[in-house]
Acyl-CoA dehydrogenase family protein
Amino acid sequence: MNSLNAAERLALAESVSRLLDDLHGAGQPRRPVGEIWRLCADMGWPLALAPESRGGMELGMGEALAMAERYGRGLLEAPLSDAMVLAATIGVDEAGSDAAGAVAGHLRRWFAGDVCCAPIAADSRGEPLACYALPGSLGLALRHADGGLYGELYALRAPRHGIDPLIMTARPEAAPVQSQRLADCSEDAWRMLCLRRRAMSIAEILGAGRAALDLAVGHARERVQFGQPIGVNQAVKHTLAGDWMALDDAGLALQALGDALDRPGADVALALAVAQLLAVEGAGRAAAHALQAHGAMGMTWECPVHFYLKRVRHLSALLGRSGGTARLLDEIWRAAA
């Protein structure tokens, strides 16, 4: 594992921000998802966690979470988190070693940026839902059975926008069109895959919340009413200060989670539950308060603040079956005990 120092980790995170700023700068139309995914693949990001012997960067989860926080800020509309975690689990060579394996070949093309794939997860009701779906794309579901990791490709029904207008979702058909055993996978390896996917979503939520807070602070400084910026009002500035503190706490918890995930044999249950609770609640409040600070303008298409609230809501809903305040508090209590 190539652990980076603080300066190197910051440089990596800022490279993600610079690319997304170039793609989604002020006044620029949003690029097609396929083009965005190709750029991510050209940067080598889907293979960030994969071993160097298989063409990856072999970074740790601390670095991956720093990247995810930045593309959460940038509202990336591509399934980079799922690709990074999956590539680290199966390895690029394993995914492409069986020439006759349709699923393995599709994954290899996905990591290379040649095709788009829509990861399938359970929604808040436990039903399968493919996110980042495009017309003609296939959904990918993972399952663990008989000591192996299986990949299943599904045809998707007509994609449509859900909570997040930047992410198209679709329901998969009842039966997969292709299924393949991708790699040997122990119970511990499967658990780590699930934990990593959950951690990456938490980082994206935190990034979206921080971006919303930045917009709210900037607006509170510039918006003048009755001859003074609205930020001088205690109801505004104290709310934004409280949101900053909540997100800072969540950021520290996310760093602790990354350290735990990178330590072999570490019990990450407590760190994961704490990070999720703080990020989901802190980002949810910050994004909602940012919308309130902007007033009615915040819900217009010209103002991006509502996109962050919707991204937080979307990702939080997908985490809902492993979260919810009461369940997370119980998880924290059991892990601490």
